[in-house]
Specification:
The protein has 122 residues and is mostly helical. The protein folds into two domains: 52 residues, no CATH class; 57 residues, no CATH class. The chain has a two-stranded antiparallel ribbon. A hairpin with a 5-residue loop joins β1 and β2. The longest helix has 18 residues. 16% of the residues are buried.
Length: 122
């Protein structure tokens, strides 16, 4: 068991197990091999992998863009996507692979993506 600052409304210290099946971070990394990869990557940067958004985004980019890795094909599909709907589906169905891949779940994610684009598009 390790102690970390777990993201929530307030940061608090809690124990966790890398094999706990709980999703971590913005991508909700669940599988122990991906959690371990995130943890190792953060350690090389000297950051907290749960508390540092840039570390999580950098690790996501690393997972997607490294050739001969599991998610490189998703990166190629993402580059070919023509709209937010297609890009969201690539990330949701391929890279994230959540249990809920329904049209409703996709619509929710597309709505979030469009709101973020509208807010930061300038």
């Amino acid at each position: 068991m390790r102690k970390v600052a777990k993201p929530c409304n307030t940061f608090m210290t809690t124990t966790y197990n890398i094999n706990d099946g709980v999703g971590w971070g913005i991508i909700q990394w669940t599988h122990f091999s991906r959690k371990s990869g995130l943890e190792i990557y953060a350690a090389t940067k000297g950051t907290n992998y749960l508390g540092d958004l840039n570390t999580q985004l950098e690790f996501m980019y690393l997972e997607l863009t490294t050739k001969n890795r599991e998610f490189y094909d998703d990166w190629q599909k993402l580059l070919q996507s023509q709209n937010i709907n297609d890009a969201t589906w690539v990330i949701m169905a391929g890279y994230e692979n959540p249990d809920d891949k329904t049209e409703g779940a996709l619509r929710d994610r597309v709505d979030y993506a469009e709101a973020i684009k509208a807010r930061y598009n300038n």
